């Protein structure tokens, strides 16, 4: 890994892997704050962006287990402001016919996209007199796949059903039980020194890496996003991954039933195609899914499912996803391995990070005997 960093322009990276035998390895390289001297560690704080979605999905499935909501319940009575949003197609808006369910939201088959970076027509839509709390949907729920704001709405479902904030629910039901003491929507003052630097590569995503100003947020977040709002550390996030690798239990703490985790790993979108070839994305930010979502990929209840074997040995059926600032994770249930890598730069799915994850994975798979 040190050798790989000699030809890589990233100034900080942390990677961790663990297996079902509780063998854990990690690699940390570079400076946490690029202009300072302290080395980055597994306990430094990174913005998760879309890796928040996994924790939101776990929270929603806890509610399903408790019988507070069903995966296929019509959500129009819980969130009418969501289900009333019209569908946009070729410049025309139409009223939706199909109901939206929690399963649709968890699998990105609800019709919601990202106007910034996953759908061209949404990026060109005129929002000047738009009165709805989200962009138009792009298709009837359950008919296609589009990566977007679905998990933002899952967070609102959780808040409505539990009559609490997402922050409180996560703390009481996931982060405190798993002893994730550096995972927050608002990083406390005492930990802000651990927030790492972030970088960008210009409007075309191809310029030399430059630091983004505003490393530490200036305002408290009061509306909690289940889509992209969490900050965490590699060590903390690995606790969730190890818990899920162990089918919902870690160190005697159970956050999900085994049967729920097994269901999470199954194809939930049937014959719907996730192939991202030719899809719209913003080269400055996100979300180029090429190489991540192919015509053999499927979506479970919290993550994508890779149905192709990697040359270093990662097995088909491995579940995975990532966050906009180039954080990634996977769980290979067949070989009992989980790994994550944390960097902080845009655009998403950048080879400077993905190549390191491949190198790290090749190393750990050669040793996972």
Overview of this protein structure:
The chain is of the alpha+beta class. It has a single domain, classed as Beta-lactamase. The chain has a seven-stranded antiparallel sheet with strand order 2-1-15-14-13-12-11, with helices on both faces. Strands 3-8 form a two-stranded antiparallel ribbon. It has ten helices and 15 strands. Helix 2 (52-65) crosses helix 7. The model has no long low-confidence stretch (mean pLDDT 97). It has helices at 2-5, 52-65, 80-83, 102-106, 120-124, 150-162, 166-175, 234-245, 258-264, 351-367; strands at 12-19, 24-30, 46-47, 87-89, 92-94, 199-200, 210-211, 231-232, 249-250, 253-254, 298-299, 304-306, 318-323, 327-332, 337-342. Helix content is 25%, strand content 15%. Strand 14 (327-332) and strand 15 form a beta hairpin. The two termini are 20 Å apart.
Write the layout of secondary structure elements.
Elements (H helix, E strand, L loop, with lengths): L1 H4 L6 E8 L4 E7 L15 E2 L4 H14 L14 H4 L3 E3 L2 E3 L7 H5 L13 H5 L25 H13 L3 H10 L23 E2 L9 E2 L19 E2 L1 H12 L3 E2 L2 E2 L3 H7 L33 E2 L4 E3 L11 E6 L3 E6 L4 E6 L8 H17 L2
Antiparallel strand pairs: 1-2, 1-15, 3-8, 4-5, 6-7, 9-10, 11-12, 12-13, 13-14, 14-15
């Amino acid at each position: 890994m040190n050798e790989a960093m000699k030809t890589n322009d990233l100034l900080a990276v942390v990677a961790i892997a663990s297996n079902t035998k509780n063998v854990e390895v990690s690699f940390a390289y570079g400076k946490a704050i690029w202009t300072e001297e302290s080395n980055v560690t597994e306990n430094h704080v990174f913005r998760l962006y879309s890796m928040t979605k996994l924790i939101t999905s776990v929270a929603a499935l806890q509610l399903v287990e408790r019988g507070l909501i069903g995966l296929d319940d019509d959500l129009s009575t819980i969130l009418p402001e969501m289900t009333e949003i019209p569908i946009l197609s070729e410049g025309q808006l139409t009223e939706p016919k199909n109901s939206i369910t929690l399963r649709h939201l968890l699998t990105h088959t609800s019709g919601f996209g990202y106007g910034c970076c996953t759908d061209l027509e949404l990026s060109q839509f005129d929002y000047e007199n738009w009165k709805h709390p989200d962009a138009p949907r792009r298709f009837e729920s359950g008919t296609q796949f589009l990566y977007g704001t679905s998990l933002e709405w899952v967070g609102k479902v959780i808040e409505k059903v539990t009559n609490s904030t997402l922050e409180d629910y996560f703390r009481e039901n996931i982060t405190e039980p798993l002893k994730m003491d550096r995972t927050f929507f608002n990083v406390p003052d005492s930990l802000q020194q651990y927030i790492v630097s972030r970088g960008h590569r210009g409007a075309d995503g191809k310029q030399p890496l430059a630091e983004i100003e505003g490393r530490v947020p200036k305002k408290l977040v009061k509306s909690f996003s289940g889509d992209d709002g969490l900050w965490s550390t590699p060590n903390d996030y690995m606790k969730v991954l190890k818990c899920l690798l162990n089918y919902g239990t870690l160190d005697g703490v159970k956050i999900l039933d085994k049967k729920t985790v097994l269901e999470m790993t199954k194809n939930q979108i049937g014959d719907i195609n996730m192939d991202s070839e030719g899809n719209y994305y913003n080269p400055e930010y996100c979300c180029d899914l090429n190489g991540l979502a192919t015509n053999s990929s499927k979506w479970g209840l919290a993550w994508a499912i890779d149905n192709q074997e990697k040359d270093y040995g990662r097995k088909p059926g491995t579940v995975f996803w990532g966050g906009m600032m180039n954080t990634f994770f996977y769980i290979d249930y067949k070989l009992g391995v989980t790994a994550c890598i944390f960097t902080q730069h845009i655009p998403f799915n950048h080879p400077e990070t993905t190549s390191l994850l491949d190198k790290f994975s090749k190393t750990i798979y050669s040793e996972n005997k």
